Amino acid sequence: MPEALTIRPATRADIPNLVDWNAAMAQETEARTLDRTVLARGVEGVFDAPRRGFYLVAERDGAAVGSLLVTYEWSDWRCGDFWWIQSVYVVPQARRGGVFRALYAAVRDQARAAGAVGLRLYVETENQRAQRTYAELGMEPCHYFMYEEGLPRT
Asked: Domain named N-acetyltransferase: which ranges (predicted)?
């Protein structure tokens, strides 16, 4: 029987895994190849400016098996922060083993303790398995579509 999961804050020592896992997630979910130099700077940017958010890492038997990023969105309507769950990745051999559920429970507990007004995430419209998981955890689809415009980097 596998050892219980441990959820901990990520450290700079986790950056190589976080970069690898973000690149793998982009490839698996969107068939996108990310620029690893930009990605590494983006991951490091979370550690450089904690106001941007934080990563959590799940470990089983002493090995890192998954992670997620939490970022913040201020809601003037609710006078509080939504915590956005992003960059979720679980290594293939640990999938369907409760890793995301444990990460989510840790985020929920931390968000409640911090006074956040809610949790949000986005999911690919075709990813029915993930949508079922989120619903089982108590999340509901919201009535917003997401729009985006990429801006040139200077």
From this structure: 5-154
> In the chain, count of helices (H) and strands (E)?
4, 5
Q: HSE-up of 35 (CA within 13 Å, CB side)? A: 4
Q: Could you tell me the CATH number of the domain that includes residue 42?
A: 3.40.630.30
Number of Cα atoms under 13 Å in the Cβ half of residue 47: 13
pLDDT at 139 over 70: yes
Crossing angle of the two packed helices 15-30 and 36-48, in degrees rounded to 10: 130
Residue-number span of the structural domain to which 46 is assigned? 5-136
Distance in angstroms (rounded) separating the CA atoms of residues 5 and 45: 27
How many domains are there within the chain?
A: 1
Asked if residue 51 belongs to a domain, the reply is yes
pLDDT band at 107 (very low <50, low <70, confident <90, very high): very high
